[in-house]
Amino acid sequence: MPLTGQSIIAGVAHPGTGGSFTAVDPRTGGPLGPEISCLAPDEVHLATRAAAEAFPAYRATSPSDRADFLEAIAEEIEALGDELLERAHAESALPLARLQGERGRTCGQLRMFAGVVRQGDHLGVRIDPALPERAPLPRPDLRVRHLPLGPVAVFGASNFPLAFSTAGGDTASALAAGCPVVVKAHNAHPGTGELVGQAIARAAERSGMPAGVFSLVFGLGTEVGAALVTDPHIQAVGFTGSRAGGLALVAAAAGRPQPIPVYAEMSSTNPVIVLEGALAGDPEPLAAGYVASLTLGSGQFCTNPGLLFLPEGPAGDAFLAAVEQAAASATGQTMLTPQIRAAFGTGTARLGAHPSVQTIAQGLAGGDDNAPAPVVFTTRLAALADDHGLTEEIFGAAGLVVRFGDVARLADHLAGLEGQLTATIHATEADHAEAAALLPVLETRAGRILFNGWPTGVEVTHAMVHGGPFPATSDSRTTSVGSLAIERFQRPVCYQDVPAGLLPAPVRDDNPWGLRRRIDGELEPRP
Amino acid sequence: MPLTGQSIIAGVAHPGTGGSFTAVDPRTGGPLGPEISCLAPDEVHLATRAAAEAFPAYRATSPSDRADFLEAIAEEIEALGDELLERAHAESALPLARLQGERGRTCGQLRMFAGVVRQGDHLGVRIDPALPERAPLPRPDLRVRHLPLGPVAVFGASNFPLAFSTAGGDTASALAAGCPVVVKAHNAHPGTGELVGQAIARAAERSGMPAGVFSLVFGLGTEVGAALVTDPHIQAVGFTGSRAGGLALVAAAAGRPQPIPVYAEMSSTNPVIVLEGALAGDPEPLAAGYVASLTLGSGQFCTNPGLLFLPEGPAGDAFLAAVEQAAASATGQTMLTPQIRAAFGTGTARLGAHPSVQTIAQGLAGGDDNAPAPVVFTTRLAALADDHGLTEEIFGAAGLVVRFGDVARLADHLAGLEGQLTATIHATEADHAEAAALLPVLETRAGRILFNGWPTGVEVTHAMVHGGPFPATSDSRTTSVGSLAIERFQRPVCYQDVPAGLLPAPVRDDNPWGLRRRIDGELEPRP
């Protein structure tokens, strides 16, 4: 099916009256057709109404039908073949090999959620049987299951045009929970968005799902997104992007007559702490690992190690020298958009000109205007206390190495850091006493704690947390990656003395879905 | 220990500079000493700082030590003996027998949470073991556990001076999760609050808990509460009370530099739907049940059945006649405060004067100025569509019976109702087709659905949901009653490749706490 440049409303291409734009090849600045026809803010309700109409039927689907749908989406995305990868490559400048891996991750997480839906533990079924003989009053029969919240608005990320965009983690987990989804297409990769949107629409049709279970809307500026978040049919929001963008959606959602949850994954500098023992050997592998993580994907990861804390002294100096050497041969890759590249330029110029900051390593610029050289700066811990702006995220391959003298003082500093997605310690056994003292501090500041690794690379699995205290996310109680994410889009409902014939399947005595249930507070074995 | 009328900051009585007030006996309007010394808003930080200082040690307590502490609180409350009941009776006018039951519930829920803490399922441990041989990249070792959010501010309810106040459900679940608690004492029962606060402080001391794990602060007006919610140490808020009060706290929390979750349980009219079959027999038991639930505790329950939908026609008329008779002999009990009684008067006067509303039943006033007569109004479904104000909650023993002709039209109306704590259907088997059609509508509108019972009376157990869509609560994803409430005060943290010797106990391979863990997505049997 060719690209139409139109929104997809409940399976049907839909032109809008909200203006138009054309995608841009970030390597050349040249246009990538077709022209994209945008909805006006007052046309968004077409998608949300379709989602609301689809909700009763979609939430009532059996685990097996819903799981089949998720798997059908994965199949339809794979069936797009090279066309999808080539379009995503043209729109994002991300290497084809990376996009191939990202497609695998996208389809893998859809299939993981299919498995979660079939297994059913997320329904959190609890049964407290009636106690008719209890004195002074009998206890009624009580049964809990979780229900989906309702239609969800999803705002994808520029840096994951597949795995965190149209059919990305938020869409997969919301659909798995039983929520229809309306995606606001990312304007940095509209063609990729439409191709994936068409794949989801095809999957919905062949799986017999109500068409309104999925829509994709194009819009200019921020008004269409605001219209989506304030639409009364929308019951939750998933967002991955900038802090300003996320906070605007949080404020819009809080200002509704009926406030709704917003899961915004916003910004993080992902502190890495190198302890003395980790510097005892050859500094080169550690430095190479750091530079590789820092420059991966042009540094355009929310888990990019933007801050590295390094001991003062000769071992730290040797590590820095090795970083300088490794960074010198690192070549900039084309960034996702000219705007992101411009912000990188502003951020690195600000740091480079800061009186307390030295530029210690510089790589090579890439082959076009949007491929700036990776850069590493250094400063001292005391300077951070004087200027909190030093630790602001610079999206891209820019690192700040902070030298510290004393681990206790470092711990004090870390305790005051903003919330983070990740925190990493490099340590050997000789450092364990110091690491043990840092751990409780990092637990309060980050959603994931790593040892002797690098934060880029987020496993899509059951024990992943991609989240963290504000402002890393707007809601630290959840994750946006991994199977636990399904719980974000649910609420519990209790059934008291509901007649057996009227009970919904998950809480029926005959347990037709084969769920593991909590009876009087204790989990049953799986039937 | 005698009442001091002072705040309890980390175990120590603390006078304030924020003015003073004296408790009032709602039956007489007379004062109940001692004078209560209030903190000024800028003194609240004494309590929150103590809570923040206690947090690292308190959250590190073992399940057994923390459970012992919760049980010690129950014991210390019981050790207060009749003094507590008499003070609560004097301050609230609630009957002694009711307060005795409420004390049992209060201590029962503390002990239930002790059991939850010992069992440990709330920690949600997940382990995805490393896959060093996986291609193209090895999988790291990933482990998740849940951590407490941090210090919690609790605002208790006037209508449950024990079970939903100082040591009530929010305090018990937050302490169980590992969060220190700062309670803003309710000014309708300050002496009761201080007695219970002293009991908690004694329990903390004898259990070896850090003193800052609990504080109780007195304050005038709304400024002290606002100071608490906007204090940077506070990481979550529990509230039970009016919609205006809850929404003010939600707004204050959202306006913080770091927004925090607010769990506000606010208002609900708890619709009861009577279907034809339920009217087929003798109407008297049903009418008696309704009037008993409506007038229980002077109607001062968040689950009071304020709205009852009744079929038009002779069977409904007969039910109404039976209601009139049952209500005629119902005597008003003293309400909690003169303010609540005044609001009841305003609300019932407004309904009584409404051109579409008839007063159909009136009980007897009680023996003092604060004990108004229960009252039942009636109107037609069409009138509700014209004036949404008709369905506003009137806190107290006032019911509105809404006559409907057609269940399909009723379903449309219910779909547009505000979020509710409960929804109830009275039906016999002959009504099941109609009930089945109503159920999905009610599921989207309420947190608990009952059949052939009355919503007052909330079991404190594992399968209870006392929550619901906005504005019943500010966060439909949780419950404020029952063991599931512990999850409100937690966030997940992931440990990636953390050395065995540094892992926290819940995620260690040797599983020292005997937890049930989810390995690669599947729950293990309990060890």
From TrEMBL, chains A, B:
Per the database record, which ranges form the Aldehyde dehydrogenase domain? Answer: 20-468
Q: What CDD domains is this protein classified in? A: ALDH_KGSADH
Q: Does the keyword Cell wall biogenesis/degradation apply?
A: no
Q: Which UniProt keywords apply?
A: Oxidoreductase
The keyword Oxidoreductase appears for this protein = yes
A Pfam family that this protein carries is Aldedh
Gene3D superfamilies named among the record's database cross-references: Aldehyde Dehydrogenase, Chain A, domain 1, Aldehyde Dehydrogenase, Chain A, domain 2
- Know the name of this protein? Aldehyde dehydrogenase (NADP(+))
